[in-house]
Amino acid sequence: MKKMTCRQLGGACDQEFLADSFDEIADMSRRHGVAMFQDRDAAHLQAMNEMQALMKDPQAMKVWFEGKRREFESLPEA
């Protein structure tokens, strides 16, 4: 298993996620983001606005996402 934080994944806190694959950890991060959105957490809302701006450029989003995937793959087992 590998560990990444919300902040490492573009979020706003140090919530840790443990998973065997990047796809799993990305899904955990997404679900956390939904919960923070529902809670109207200001820091997470700001991070989401920044992510939405990035998503306007599909190529930039792809580069960002693949960079996070490489970062996950380079991490040691937790």
Question: Layout of SSEs?
Answer:
Blueprint (H helix, E strand, L loop, with lengths): L1 E4 L10 E4 L2 H17 L3 H14 L2 H17 L4
Antiparallel strand pairs: 1-2
Based on secondary structure, the structural category is mainly alpha
Shape assignment: globular
Number of discrete domains: 1
Q: Sketch the major β-sheet.
A: 2 strands, antiparallel
User: First CA to last CA: what distance?
Assistant: 6 Å
Strand order of the largest sheet: 1-2
**How big is the Rg?**
12 Å
Order of helices and strands: EEHHH
Percent range of helical residues: 55-70%
Tell me the total number of β-strands. 2
Mean pLDDT comes to 95
Count of alpha and pi helical runs: 3
* Uncertain regions spanning at least 5 consecutive residues: none
Percentage of residues in DSSP E strands:
5-15%
Q: What does this protein look like?
A:
Strands 1-2 form a two-stranded antiparallel sheet. The chain has helices spanning 22-38, 42-55, 58-74; strands at 2-5, 16-19. It is mostly helical and 78 residues long. It has three helices and two strands. It is globular. The longest helix has 17 residues, at 22-38.
Summary keywords:
78 residues, two-stranded antiparallel ribbon
Summarize the structure.
The chain is mostly helical and 78 residues long.
